[in-house]
Task: structure prediction
Amino acid sequence: MRFDTSQHMKMGQHMKLAPRMIQSMEILQMPLAELEERIEQELESNPTLELGDGGPADGSREPVEAEAFDDDKPLTVSGESGGDDFERLDRYEESNPEAAENQYGNDLERAAAPDSSWERLEPGSYSASRMAGERDGKMDAMAAAQAPPESLAEQLLEQWALSGVDPALSAIGEVIIAHLEEDGYLRTPLELIAERTGGAPMAIVERALRAVQLLLDPAGVAARTPAECMVLQLDALEAAGESDWPSAAFANARRIVEHHLEDVTQNRLPKVAERTGLGMNDIKEALTLLRRLSLSPARRLVQETTRPIIPDAIVEYDEGQDRYIAYLNDSRLQVVRINEEYARLVKDKNADKRDRDFLRTNLANAQWLLDAVGQRRHTLLRVVRAVVEAQRDYFDYGPQALKPLPMTGVGEQLGIHVATVSRAVADKYLATPRGIVPLRKFFSGGVTTRPDAGETPNEMAWDAIKDALREVIGAESKEKPLSDEALVEELKKRGIEIARRTVAKYRDQLGIPSARMRKTF
Result:
């Protein structure tokens, strides 16, 4: 076997995404809230960008029309530049190591230097504004920012420090709290905790665990099983004496939780009545008491921040023209533009070459951002209008009138790739007369209904079928709920023919339990 090297030519075609194209796709996929954050980051990092007029502050911005954007027309630099506002040089300092923030003496020395580029940027205006005693907006924002919430372990340790337990149990209790999971359960074996406390006896570890369970709020913290968690809450609720429930209800609830919890979760109440000898009314009373409890009480201490949903577009009904009008919800989006002062400075051949190269790079990034944001608005509005036109029946009659709408069809109609349509609808929401709806909801497959003789077949989207299934289950008798086979027959009466396994799949997706679990006794 012999190895040798050689040179040869090969012709081929390769497709590579330019950075500008990648940025455009990323911005197209961003929902409105993320786009706002992206623009804020660019304003902080790019000194050539500035806020323009007509933004959300004065509310003078008009809805964007798709026809107003020309793909082939390059965006130009605005002539109404706020060149006198040099507070934006805060961001310029962050990009230049030689600019030391809050060092006013060094700022003035550099401004007075003959070869300093600050001299060409009207030196003195920046330092004078700082030395005049103006408030720092960044510091004010940091001072007004909400402090991060304490974690579950931190809050429980603060309670444990004030519990006044025996010192021998205090250290073991801290180890137990450190091993609690986010829902407050202790799933680490006590033997392992004993090893990590230096080989403490199991009796001491169990006493420490019992102290943690009884002394910390809310009740149910440090439970090892759901049954133990509910028993701890029942004990605390009965000991508080604030409940109107009789003691027999607490005793029955403990008995059911400790010995028949699985039968209850499977809705086998007759079996529970047979094994316990309790009447059905007593069991229902105990279950009503158990519904007041929580399987994860420790989550009350942790504040989960939920991101608000901001619709990217708004759909309104025009009675005069009998049509639905769609426009973008970009009135809250900041209007940014390129600073004319920097645009002129980059063309000044007398300026320092490093400064010109720095500004040229940032001007190119700023132009790319403006192009990407404009293209996003143009594409998103075209997609939304195509959806509103295709799903007119949904806005008129409700979710059951939703029609199948493949993304490929919308892409062919608009002359764009299906991947572009997918990115345009990702994580976007519409504010409609029927509430705030995910834009992706309008894109789905479906089936053709089989109506009675003389009626016209109609296409029905999967979400519309799910809504019909939810309506059928909502109207059933709770004493005799419909099985999946019966649900198939009920949907067939409405002209919807689907298989039983499809009904079971949609029922699971809707979070609706089986017929046995829905039955009431």
